Give the backbone structure.
Amino acid sequence: QVQLVESGGGLVQAGGSLRLSCIASGRTFSPYVMGWFRQPPGKEREFVAAITRGTGNTFYANSVKGRFTISSDNAKNTLYLQMNSLNSDETAVYYCASSRADTYYGVYSELAYTYWGQGTQVTVSS
């Protein structure tokens, strides 16, 4: 079984930055892709960014391109999300997610991901 634990959330002013981390543990951990999703208050969860483990290809929601950077340290089984120029609309619970070794679904879909963290709260004050 894979466990994902996020950290790094908190309160930040609009225009500020935060860096989220997600540490994965499990006897066998070799996902095809890892990603970040977020769920604003009263809204559905949405895709933020993803990175394929083998090739390091990255994918971003249009709303975060140029401001957010996803990266990973495979040796440490750790996923990161650097978030810059945050705005109040980005207040949300941010979730780390991981697929199995392969997936039938595109990386933008929640269906591609089997394992989820408990989430970390990011609050952006205006």
Remarks:
- The longest strand covers residues 18-25.
- The mean pLDDT is 96.
- Residues 95 and 119 are 4 Å apart (CA to CA).
